[in-house]
Amino acid sequence: MTAPLPNGLMRHEPIDAIRFPLEPIAPPSLGCVVCETNDAAAFALPLGSLRVRTFGRVLPEGRDSRGRGTLFGGAHRQAPRASSFVAKQSRQAPAPSSSATRIRAPRDVVKLEDRLAYLLQPPLENLLAAEALDFPFRPFPYQLDGIAYLYPRHEAVLADEMGLGKTMQTVVALRLLAHQGLVRRALLVCPKPLVTNWRREFSQWAPELPVTIMEGNQSQRQWLWNNAEQGVLIANYELIVRDRELAVNVPAPFDLMVVDEAQRIKNRSGATHESICAIPRERSWALTGTPIENSADDLVGIFEFVSPGRLRPQMKTSAIRSAVADHVLRRTKDNVLTQLPPKMIRDADVQLTSEQWATYQRAEEDGVIRLNDMGAELTIQHVFELVLRLKQICNFDPATGASAKLDRLEADLEECAASGRKAIIFSQWVDTIDKLRGKLGRFGPLEYHGRIPSNRRDGVIEQFRNDPSKHILLMSYGAGSVGLNLQFASYVFLFDRWWNPAVEDQAINRAHRIGATGPVTVTRFLATGTIEERIDRVLAEKRELFNAVFDDEPMTRKLGLSRDEIFGLFNLRFPEPKPEAAAA
Amino acid sequence: MDAGRLTPRPPPASDLPGMDAAPAKALAAFGFLTVLESAEHGLFGGYLVLSPQGRPLEFRCSTPVAASRAQEILYGPTLRPYLFAEVIGRALVAGAELDAAVILTDQPDMLPLALLRHEEILLVQEANVGATTFSLSASSTDAASDVELAEPSSSASLIINGCEIIASPVSTKLSGEIAALLEPLAANVYLAEPFQRIRAALTEAQLASHDDAESTHDRAAA
To answer: CA A378 from chain center: how many Å?
Structure first.
């Protein structure tokens, strides 16, 4: 039936030659819908049995899909305001399809023609190239996924773990929307210390977008609220509360409003929440690494801004999970930074020595009695003091210096030093670090904490990196958990535990970060039967709640203890306010 | 060596019997035609017309086509080309509003459509052969596409950005002419990529159809 052609193609015999004696197969039925009409009657075509038969047209000058037509339009495209508005055209060859990032329709897009319009669009990489957007460096694939997630959504929570680039993803998505003519005026609200950081990120990832910081005196701000018609306005939370009336009564809704560190609006009765939610807007994006800090109701507060009514207080976890599934994008480093070597976490449960245990029991019993005796004078500070006292005993017995944790640590460090590897040991107390330095002298300990002058700290890191006799670095959480690159360390020991897993994560990530050449072993010490175990249990319950909603990996988010939980560590209750105080 | 010619020169396409008349449509664009095979329903056809920038201009899809057992036996090996090209491809392209200068397909069985249409029908395959290549000087100086002529064992083929382009047996175009035709699109689009869009859209349409059928059934039951 076939014969090879000179070009290698197999030529088929003419089909008509054998069709004659056969009953022809009926051609498929077709139908058409013109997407831009938004005319429901257009679907009422005499369609075949499958009822699909869509043919749509998405014109480059179409309109936004929600209430304004088709999303992928590029309507209202503005002429370049300045020569720098459109960056130099990228002339890279189109990438193979295996690396394409697809923009998918949000679930609340229900019309088939709209859903098909999303699916038929070019990959994100093509859109970025077509808009001639240049970047300081190529985003990671997961960041492109995040941009593709934000881009079509009017209601979105980007809840990536800290450090994955939520800011950059938001800036690029906003930039693309601006180039498509879908966003002309955006409001970004963030904590005051982050305003300069946002401005820097915009200058790096969207240099052509005009960015205005909302500041100045009352009349200057009033003018900005009423007259800043294009570009990005950046305001801090306190200013939003102060300028509530101005912000709520802007001449036209913002095309996009972004709330950074959105846990700041979790309290639904707070002035910040009310002010933020009252600002008129077309799109609402919230950014947070910790969408749930204490309870699922935190998420309700955030969704009052993102998608009012979607969540209600006291909803069941499964219902929340289902309701927010398409509205929250959450990735962790373990999910996306697959090039990192593995991180192995082991919990070292340590039984206190007999001296420690006797001291500990005495201190707790006496301490609880004292707290109970305080009655209405009791404050959270008093409870904190007892917790800290007990945790210090878990490290070292103050009378004898005995330490079960130290015994275990020394055994582990022997192995670490014998293999020529390096370890970082974290504690929250410099006094504990002092004791460790004395006991671990044979491992060549170096110190990095608040008592080390800042002009000596770089030298400490360099010595730890280069001196083969220096096997351990003793660090405090406060000084050493942020901003250091210690990828050459293979072991991390958490001699005592911080209140908040996010701080511990940051400490661990000094060693386990991009550039690490081998696996990192993390050992978390925990004194069994003590306050440390109780704190860990409370935090674990919160992690379980978080996981139930976001299907997340453990130990990656910021979940601290609330006031009631701290009192609950000793079966105490927060005292009722005095009658006169209540009246006041 | 006649490396620039992909196929023997057949008679003019318009002289072929049964060919659809060339429509007088204004906008020249690029058509992508493929078929999604469903074990349950049969063959779904999808036809996507793109602008040179890769933006979708028009999309058509067909209801499923399935041959009976008797037809399978009687048509034999010609059944698939017949279904793909004559039944599905022809109907989709003929019904489109926009004219396409070139129609690309990733299905070899779609190539006989060239017998029925005036458009250039080209097969796109992701190249995996380390063929001898040389640059095609006809490409524009700032082109983003990487155009090469490859010389497998016995015939010439065209490779653009890693996609092998194979002309239909009835094509009268030289490889250089085909490269020039595709150049505006290839500068913006990886030529095998739009077929993914069509398959995704066909799958979505199938799902929507299934949902519609279920809701209709539910309403009827109520």
So the answer is: 37
On whether any CB of chain B is under 8 Å from the CB of A470, the answer is no
Distance (Å, rounded) from C-alpha A363 to C-alpha A354? 14
Q: Is A292 helix (H, G, I), strand (E, B) or coil?
A: coil
Query: In this complex, do A18 and B60 lie within 8 Å of one another by their Cβ atoms?
Result: no
Cα B109 to Cα B169: distance, rounded to the nearest angstrom:
12
Alpha carbon of residue A131 to chain centroid = 27
Within 10 A of A531 (CB to CB), how many other CB atoms are there?
A: 21
Residue from the list B55, B63, B157 with its beta carbon closest to the beta carbon of A53:
B63
Q: What span, in angstroms and rounded, lies between the C-alpha atoms of A523 and A542?
A: 21
CA distance B190 to chain A (A): 5
Using CA atoms, how far apart are residues A268 and A278, in angstroms rounded to an integer?
Answer: 12
According to the model, what pLDDT value does residue A88 have? 36
| Interchain proximity A97–B142, CB inside 8 Å | no
SS3 B165: strand
Q: Which residues contact A554 (CB under 8 A, 6 or more apart)?
A: A543, A547
Kindly list the residues from chain A whose CB atom is less than 8 angstroms away from the CB atom of residue B186. Answer: 94
Q: Give the residue among B193, B209, B53, B89 at the shortest CA–CA distance from A115.
A: B209
Distance CA A503, CA A523 (A): 15
Mean pLDDT of all residues belonging to chain A? 78
Radius of gyration of chain A (CA): 30
What's the pLDDT tens digit per position in A539-582?
Answer: 777 777 777 777 654 444 445 667 777 777 777 766 655 444 33
Beta-carbon contacts of B183 under 8 Å, excluding residues fewer than 6 positions away, are B139, B140, B143, B145, B147
Separation of alpha carbons A162 and A495, rounded Å? 24
Residues 6+ apart with CB under 8 A from B158: B6, B147, B148, B149, B150, B164, B165, B166, B175, B178, B179
In chain A, residues with a C-beta closer than 8 Å to the C-beta of B189 are 94, 122, 126
Chain A residues touching B95 at Cβ < 8 A: 30, 32, 55
Q: What is the pTM of this model?
A: 0.62
Asked if the Cβ–Cβ distance from B63 to A50 is below 8 Å, we say yes
Judge whether residue A194 has pLDDT over 90. no
Top residue of B5, B73, B197, B210 to mutate, by most chain A CBs within 10 Å, is: B197
Is there a contact between B60 and A30 if contact means CB atoms under 8 Å apart?
A: yes
Containing H/E element for A320?
helix A317-324
Return the H-helix or E-strand segment holding B205: helix B194-221
Chain A, 124-143: which have a CB under 8 Å from a chain B CB?
A: 126, 129-130
Pairwise CA distance, residues A467 & B113, whole Å: 73
**Residue count of chain B:** 222
Q: What is the pLDDT of residues A349-358, one digit of tens each?
A: 889 999 999 9
Task: Convert the pLDDT of each residue in A108-162 to its tens digit.
Answer: 887 888 888 888 988 888 878 777 788 887 888 889 999 999 999 999 999 987 6
Range A105-109 contact pairs with CB under 8 angstroms and sequence separation of 24 or more: A105/A152, A106/A152, A106/A153, A106/A154, A106/A155, A106/A326, A107/A325, A107/A326, A108/A155, A108/A326, A109/A65, A109/A152
Q: Are A238 and A215 in contact (CB under 8 A)?
A: no
Burial of B141 (0-12, 13-18, 19+ CB in 10 A): exposed
Q: How far apart are CA A302 and CA A268, in angstroms?
A: 8
CA B101 to chain centre: 12
